[in-house]
Amino acid sequence: xxxxxxxxxxxxxxxxxxxxxxxxxxxxxxxxxxxxxxxxxxxxxxxxxxxxxxxxxxxxxxxxxxxxxxxxxxxxxxxxxxxxxxxxxxxxxxxxxxxxxxxxxxxxxxxxxxxxxxxxxxxxxxxxxxxxxxxxxxxxxxxxxxxxxxxxxxxxxxxxxxxxxxxxxxxxxxxxxxxxxxxxxxxxxxxxxxxxxxxxxxxxxxxxxxxxxxxxxxxxxxxxxxxxxxxxxxxxxxxxxxxxxxxxxxxxxxxxxxxxxxxxxxxxxxxxxxxxxxxxxxxxxxxx
Length: 288
What we know:
Blueprint: H1 2-36, H2 52-59, H3 62-92, H4 99-111, H5 114-124, H6 131-136, H7 149-174, H8 178-186, H9 191-202, H10 204-219, H11 223-228, H12 240-250, H13 254-280
Helix pairs in contact: 1-13, 3-7, 3-10, 3-12, 4-7, 7-10, 10-13, 12-13
């Protein structure tokens, strides 16, 4: 009887999380895939059309443009955000007057609502009365330029994510035993050598987590882009999440929006698998 009760109790403890995973992850994927096989519109027909939505997307320009813009946004924001987060964490790991307060301040952008941050930065980027142009003493159309709009949005994403990355990197740094650095210093290793030979390799688990979460977030970014540029000018900041929104609520094509969502899910699953394979042989968890 005791053997039967333990598995039941275990499943009861797991049940709330399992319900959450099913309701908010698995079920939406199934629903999106089902929608993608129809021409479902907000007002109108919703007939089964098979893979027609995928054919339209892959033979058109909108999907490829949004994928290209999203990839550029990811390349601009994720590596820089990770590098700056690591450098900030190294500084935060040193005890200095006011360090505790400073740690709280750098995390504030991450916990703020992306739409609120977008509104603030839209004012900062404002060409006539914006704080940035006033500081530079010139007029630059940051959000109206096809060339500058995406880097400007990516910079906001980096600014928002640095504190998040630094928080996890600091936790990783505190787990590295000081004795390892002391032994390396006795062997004549300088600070740069210790950083590349000890710190970076032992932070691989943290780097894997931060890189994975930031990559997923960058491919799903919407609030920041929507509040700053709305996907413009033209389609220069039309990320894939904006395409899903425009197809669903702009054009009223829920079926095609579902197809874009399924494509995004497949891309993220593939990239996550590639990252996992890359870091699997490079991660060290035992630091004893």
